[in-house]
Write a structure and sequence with these properties.
Layout lengths: L13 H10 L4 E4 L5 H12 L3 E4 L1
Parallel strand pairs: 1-2
Helix pairs in contact: 1-2
Length: about 55
């Protein structure tokens, strides 16, 4: 199943959505851009827990 979320419509902040995505036990997360340190930390945490993370 593919789930796409929109910031501003589905959630208020980018980091909140990253955390919410991890709670759904994904196999893969595709992130458009990692723009700040907190987002990078969350993405690395996901990768360290076994989630395939792809970003630009």
């Amino acid at each position: 199943m593919i789930r796409q979320r929109e910031i501003g419509k589905d959630t208020k902040t980018f980091n909140a959505e990253l955390r919410a995505a991890l709670r759904q036990d994904p196999d893969v997360i595709v992130i458009g851009e990692l723009r700040d340190f907190k987002s990078i930390q969350i993405a690395l945490m996901a990768a360290e827990s076994g989630v395939l993370v792809s970003s630009s």
